[in-house]
Amino acid sequence: MIKCSYDQLKDILERCGIIEAHNALDYFASWEEPDRSAGIDMEATKKRICELIKKKGLKDKTIAEKMGITPQAVNKWRHKGTFLVIENLYILSGLLGVSMDDLIVPAAVKKNYCLIERH
After folding, report:
1. What Å distances lie between residue 19 and 47, 116, 118, CA to CA?
2. Most exposed among 7, 34, 47, 84, judged by the fewest C-beta atoms under 10 Å?
3. What angle do CA 61, 64, 66 make, to 5 degrees?
4. Is the pLDDT of residue 18 over 80?
5. What is the pTM of this model?
6. Residue 17 and residue 13: Cα distance in Å, rounded?
7. CA–CA distances in Å: residue 38 to residues 28, 34, 61, 114
């Protein structure tokens, strides 16, 4: 646990963009995080992966060679909706330079709220 003053916490939350003034002394913070119990939005995840591949300029053949699969298999999960096994998703995240969480789109998010009161 890290201890910090009210002003330090306020500064951190302002820099993260998750805080707004509630009244003269109090602040209200809110943020979203994946609701992992809801699962994965497969279509949105596929779109995100395709966008990241395009942005990185990778070709199916290059991805296939790095993953030890055929270019046809890459094409199949990119365009026909079949999906990757976890190990390949892990390798792909490394090829794209992102975390696995950055590849996966959750089916739902949950909102978190916090009132920060100055005493």
Report:
1. 31, 9, 14
2. 7
3. 110
4. no
5. 0.67
6. 6
7. 27, 9, 33, 23
- Domain ranges within the chain, ordered by starting residue: 6-37+108-116, 41-103
Nearest residue to 44 (alpha-carbon basis) of 92, 107, 97, 109: 107
Model pLDDT for residues 19-40, shown as the tens digit of each residue: 666 555 567 777 788 888 999 9
DSSP state of 25: S
| DSSP-derived secondary structure for 51-63 | HHHHHHT--HHHH
Summarize pLDDT for 98-118 with one digit per residue, the tens: 999 999 999 998 888 777 776
Question: For 41-103, CATH number?
Answer: 1.10.260.40
